[in-house]
Amino acid sequence: MKLTNHIHFPPLKLPHLNRIALIMATFYPATWLLAFTAIFWGLNAKSEIFLAESVSQNLPTLPSAEKPLSQPQQDIPTNINPNLEINPAFTNRTYLLGSADQISIQVRRFPDLSFAGSISPEGLVVLPLIGTVNLSGLTVEKAKQLIYDRLNKFIKNPDVVVSLIVQRPVTVTVTGQVARPGFYPLQTPQISAAIFAAGGTNSTADLRDIVVRRTLTNGTFAEQKIDLLTPLQTGIAPPDLRLEDGDAIIVPYQQVTSDNKSDRDVAARYSLAAAQGIVQVTVTGEVAKPGFYTLPAGSGRISAALVAAGGTTLKADLREVKVRRILVDGATVEEPIDLYTPLANATELFDFPLQNGDAIVVPQLDAAKSRDYDLNLISRSTLIKPRIYVRVLSYASGGLSSFYIENGSRFLDALNGVAVNAADLRKIALFRFDREQGRAISRKLDAKAALQGDTTQNPLLEDNDVIVVGRNLVERIGYVINTVTQPFRDVLGFLLFFQQLRDGAQNLFLPNSRGTSGK
Question: How far is CA 301 from CA 291, 298, 355, in A?
Answer without folding.
Answer: 16, 8, 9
